[in-house]
Design brief:
- The protein has 13 helices and 13 strands.
- The protein has helices at about 5-15, 20-25, 30-40, 40-45, 55-65, 70-80, 110-125, 150-170, 180-190, 195-200, 210, 235-240, 345-350; strands at about 95-100, 125-130, 175-180, 220-225, 245, 250-255, 265-270, 275-280, 285-290, 310-320, 325-330, 335-340, 340-345.
- The strands form 3 sheets. It has a 6-stranded mixed sheet, covered by helices on one side. It has a 5-stranded mixed sheet with strand order 5-6-7-9-8, with no helix packed on it.
- Strand 8 (about 275-280) and strand 9 form a beta hairpin.
- Helix 7 packs parallel to helix 8.
- The protein is elongated.
Length: about 350
């Protein structure tokens, strides 16, 4: 007996739901008949309307893919609203900007931390720029961390205490925080309420970005224009390149060194090594771009931290003539010089140096 395509579909629909083995048992239609018409069991069920078509399945997957980012899109709107809540305009011709990058919370070198605060106290800069990765959070990074060693709450407290000391040292300074890759990674986990975040922040219910970063408490502007609702690491890197700050249309602060291609004198971080590039433009003449050292202590078990350098920058602006001079402060070794004053590591600070 010959069975048509329609015979097979009608039979399968009448027996639905049924497994392949069940169809063999309960149907008079031999397997060879429906295989000749449909090729395989999955396609047989699709043609019978029991499974969604390939097009329907593809569309459903696309909807699910984009729906999975709805919470992050909501977070994008929230985090982009903190850029100018605490802008402090200054009219002085000569201004100083203190810039530090890659502090990495509890992994910060204590000598670096002390001298950064001391510099803020001595200079009273018009602006203090935290140029990305003030947090570390290896719990959410590519490096494997034993969950029993998670210290996320300690890391948050460290940042809050640092901001408090910074604000106490220089109460009139504008403080600007630029979103680095570590902050972005944390915020994505926060938006998605990943199991890691739920577990380790269980005692910080309903925490918001402004609370996590203490933006209101210490009057901090947060520059975070990156769309975190992307699907690939490459796209994420492109998005993070949007996070930067231009000061007085003459100084650019960018977490990544690609900022040096924007045509401004400026400062980047991320790579934990001090490098200087020289460039020229008709607007600024001969100028410098500095990739600063980091604040992260150089004893890092997960990478070659001994090749890093520690340090931060003072940028001195002539706002009338658009000229910028840089003063790099190297805190890598056992002593440091800031404005002609020598500082040496304490016994406790030497522990993170040796």
């Amino acid at each position: 007996m010959t069975f048509s395509r329609e015979d097979c579909i009608s039979e399968l629909q009448s027996l639905n739901p049924i497994s392949r083995d069940g169809f063999r048992k309960d149907s008079e239609i031999p397997e060879k008949a429906w295989v000749n018409h449909f090729g395989n069991w999955q396609e047989f069920k699709r043609q019978a309307g029991i499974l969604p078509s390939r097009h329907e399945n593809q569309l459903s997957n696309q909807i699910a893919r984009f729906a999975s980012k709805d919470k992050i899109r909501s977070l994008n709107e929230e985090k982009s609203s903190f850029e100018d809540n605490y802008i402090r305009p200054y009219s002085k011709r000569f201004q100083s900007i203190l810039v530090g990058s890659d502090l990495h919370d509890i992994n910060c070198d204590n000598f670096y931390r002390r001298l950064f605060i001391e510099t803020a106290l001595r200079v009273q800069p018009e602006k203090i720029v935290l140029n990305g990765d003030i947090f570390d959070f290896p719990e959410f990074s590519k490096y494997t961390t034993d969950p029993r060693d998670f210290k996320v709450v300690d890391r948050i407290k460290w940042v809050h205490e640092f901001l408090e000391d910074l604000r106490d040292a220089s109460p009139e300074s504008e403080i600007d925080l630029i979103e680095g890759n570590h902050e972005a990674r944390l915020l994505r986990h926060l938006a998605e309420a990943s199991p890691a975040v739920v577990a380790i922040l269980s005692d910080l219910h309903q925490i918001k970005i402004k609370d996590l970063l203490a933006l209101d408490k210490y009057e901090v502007n947060f520059y975070a224009r990156a769309d975190l609702a992307v699907f690939s690491d490459r796209d994420m890197k492109d998005e993070l390149s949007k996070n930067y700050l231009i000061i007085n249309d003459q100084l650019l602060c960018h977490h990544f060194s690609e900022g040096k291609n924007f045509g401004y004198p400026g400062i980047s971080g991320h790579n934990h090594k001090h490098i200087v590039w020289n460039a020229f433009s008709p607007q600024f003449g001969s100028y410098e771009w500095h990739q600063s050292g980091c604040g992260h202590k150089r004893q890092a078990s997960y990478t070659n931290g001994e090749r890093w350098s520690n340090g931060f920058l003072l940028a001195h602006l002539d706002t009338h003539n658009k000229r910028t001079q840089f003063e790099y402060i190297d805190t890598t070794y056992d002593h440091c010089v800031i404005g002609g004053k020598f500082y040496t590591r304490t016994a406790a600070e030497l522990e993170t140096f040796n």
